[in-house]
Amino acid sequence: MQGLFVKESQCSSIFDRIASSTVGILNEFDARHLSNLIYSFGLVERNPDIGGDTLFNVFGEAAVKILHTFKPQELSNMLWAFVKVDADNSRLFQETGRVISGMDLGSFKPQDFSNVLWSSAKSDEADPVLFQAIGNHIANMGSLDSFKPQELSNTAWAFATAG
């Protein structure tokens, strides 16, 4: 783990300090800030122990409470980060799948679909209702020209390997 401007040892220390400082105030975070925080820890693959629990377990508990306020990119980034640090959180994935299935899928960008599906399949938490909802939406899209090659391949991989 290394940030652009700090040594690896400094980066670890910085993220550990941020983790211990935010745990007590996570209920003050809105969806955007919580998602960005989770995503940042995923980028540096950091999931430290905090008071006998992992940081991502604490993140998951906080996120579940406000999932209905997350935007598509915030949801997809959050799920991606959980997979990146190999954090097990069935409840978060199930609740996120339920929330997404009830959302206007027209507000999702191809990368959002791709990340949600890939993360769900990779975590072995593929929700059939979520895959059905997104699958129906994609099947009914007039064209998939807006999908980049990686988004198409990740989406295909997720459908091929889920379940």
Automatic annotation (TrEMBL):
GO terms for molecular function: RNA binding. One of its GO terms (cellular component) is mitochondrial matrix. InterPro entries: FAST_kinase (IPR050870). One of its GO terms (biological process) is mitochondrial RNA processing. This is Uncharacterized protein. It comes from Thalassiosira oceanica.
